[in-house]
Design goal:
With 551 residues, the chain is mainly alpha-helical. It has a domain of 253 residues: Cytochrome Bc1 Complex, Chain C (Up-down Bundle), CATH 1.20.810. Helix content is 59%, strand content 7%. The chain contains 19 helices and 10 strands. A two-stranded antiparallel ribbon has the order 1-5. Strand 9 and strand 10 form a beta hairpin. Helix 3 packs antiparallel against helix 5, helix 4 packs across helix 5 and helix 5 packs across helix 10. It is globular and about 95 Å long.
Length: 551
């Protein structure tokens, strides 16, 4: 009889011989009560597709974590008070000035707290990268159609995170109470005052009286460090749960269908790559915080309501909102003793309307297409030219408005007339997006035609051959079956049609306005002018037999 002892784990599975270690005993105890082993087996080996564009979403997550870590450190030293004190810190140029306690503590963090300036700058850079990565991530999802069923809810989560990220950035940007942030708050207060009837009441409630009041910093502070981050953290968790459940979309390729996933397992490959990428993002942000000065409040000075800083610019993600207001004509309506400032109110209302259009687009496209199926294969942007054109047009509008938001800097740095820049932006708001849509649409159609020719005739080699009868042709190299599949795997939906307006009995059918609108939009998005017919198997075989046209 041997001395070998056979053991059984918590789930009745054979265990390793010998006396179990302490960690194994704890694992067996937890598994017997929580089922962790079974959960890990079913979830930790989930397959995730891989593509370089998925990194945008990971940068969002990692920069958000870095924001929480650095923000927690900063809360230990920041005092959200607008009470006036006489500065007596280590920065000599400010000595003897009356400043708010919020501004003084910000300067103290930068000058006296060990590592405070580095953490401040990492926090600020992480905020800028966070919003930029969210925008890039959403554009990737938009251009590839990754928002389609069953991911519409996750699109709304991401859209809400983008909106909250902008608001959180505004509240955090305003806390130091320096001249730059104070000018930004003044800008926001002016926009609030333009709201008819209730604008004044909202302003008085928010600022605790006449601007700037004494409560705005104290009110922004809990919103910035508790309310908005708490909501965003919940949305991030929900977003990740849905990503884990649905997995990323995958691009068309051999073996990839709507019902399978080709990629790497979550554990250990995906998690190892994600961990390494986290430290890479953290390292890059640390380098940026160490070598690139951002928001030097000690040079800008404390806020005074009677002054404004030269070249005052908000963080980049709010530049388009300022551009809207800067280039808007100063229209006013005076009636019954009241003034409606359209020059501020219209741009102020366009800001949420533009974001709303982005949020509801997936539902509009699903309605136009009439498609209720699940989609796990991502589109190539060229195969959806209308959607791609709309996305590029939106980015073009954003760029034009960014120019308007910095019209003073463009004028001073390049010696241009600020009036010329203003009129360029006013006209460009309508002309540039339209031109961007047209050019993008043409490029997408051209790429579709090139793909069709490549499928039928192969890849150009640059080798010229002379035929016996004297004709010169270029030799083409046939594509592999994998490449042929990738270029022809996309769907080409037929546009929705109303059908005959008169039935077989000669009775006119009632067609609602929504059906007519849907038919028009469907023709624009999926009609013959929006997609080049894919090469068919018959056409391909005919070319190979030499029966069709050749090159």
């Amino acid at each position: 009889m041997s001395g070998r002892i056979e053991r059984t784990g918590a789930r009745g599975l054979p265990a390793r011989p010998g006396k179990p270690g302490r960690g194994e005993r704890v694992a067996d105890w937890a598994d017997g009560r929580l089922g962790i082993n079974t959960l890990a087996k079913s979830q930790m080996r989930k397959i995730f597709p891989d593509h370089w564009s998925f990194m945008f979403g990971e940068i969002c997550l990692y920069s958000f974590l870095i924001l929480i870590l650095t923000g927690t450190y900063l809360t230990l030293f920041f005092e959200p008070s607008m009470a006036e004190v006489t500065y007596d810190g280590t920065y000599v140029p400010l000595k003897g000035l009356l400043v708010s306690r919020a501004y003084e503590s910000t300067v103290d963090i930068s000058m006296e707290v060990r590592g405070g300036l580095l953490i401040r700058q990492i926090h600020h850079w992480a905020a800028l990268v966070f919003v930029a990565a969210m925008l890039a991530h959403m554009m990737r999802v938009f251009f590839t159609g990754a928002f389609r069923k069953p991911r519409e809810v996750n699109w709304m989560f991401g859209w809400t995170l983008l909106f909250l990220g902008i608001i959180t950035g505004l509240t955090g940007y305003s806390l130091p109470d320096d001249m730059l942030s104070g000018t930004g708050i003044r800008f926001a207060q002016g926009a609030i005052l333009s709201i008819p009837v209730i604008g004044t009441y909202i302003s008085f409630f928010l600022f605790g009286g006449e601007f700037p009041g004494e409560d705005i910093i104290a009110r922004f502070y809990p919103i910035h460090i508790l309310l908005l981050p708490g909501i965003m953290l919940g949305l991030v968790v929900a977003h990740l749960i849905l990503v884990f459940y649905h997995k990323h979309t995958q691009f068309a390729g051999p073996g990839r269908t709507e019902k399978n996933v080709v990629g790497a397992p979550f554990l250990p490959i995906y998690i190892a790559k994600a961990g390494g990428f986290f430290f890479l993002v953290f390292g890059v942000l640390a380098i940026m915080g160490a070598v690139a000065t951002i928001n030097p409040v000690w040079l800008i000075g404390p806020y005074r309501p009677d002054l404004v800083s030269t070249g005052a610019q908000p963080d980049w993600y709010l530049g388009f909102s300022e551009g809207l207001i800067r280039v808007m004509p100063s229209w006013e309506i005076n009636a019954w003793g009241h003034t409606l400032n359209l020059g501020v109110f219209i741009p102020f209302m366009l800001f949420p309307l533009v974001l709303l259009a982005i949020g509801v687009y997936p539902f509009i496209e699903a309605w136009v297409k009439g498609d209720k199926r699940e989609h796990h294969i991502a589109d190539r942007p060229r195969n959806a030219p209308v959607r791609t054109g709309l996305g590029v047009a939106w980015l073009a509008l954003f760029a034009v408005l960014m120019v308007g938001g910095g019209n003073d800097l463009w004028a001073t740095r390049f010696g241009l007339s600020i009036n010329v820049i203003t009129w360029f932006v006013r006209i460009g708001c309508f002309a540039v997006p339209a031109a961007a849509f047209f050019v993008t649409h043409r490029i997408c159609m051209g790429l579709q035609r090139r793909d069709r020719d490549k499928v039928l005739h192969g890849r150009e080699t640059g080798t010229i051959k002379r035929l016996p009868h004297g004709e010169y042709i270029e030799v083409h190299e046939s594509l592999s079956q994998a490449e042929l599949y990738t270029l022809t795997a996309h769907e080409q939906p037929r546009p929705y049609e109303i059908g005959p307006l008169v039935d077989a009995n000669g009775v006119a059918r009632k067609v609602g306005r929504s059906d007519r609108l849907r038919a028009r939009l469907a023709r624009a998005m999926y009609g013959p002018k929006a997609q080049v017919p894919k090469a068919t198997v018959e056409e391909y075989l005919a070319i190979q037999r030499g029966e069709g046209e050749h090159h």
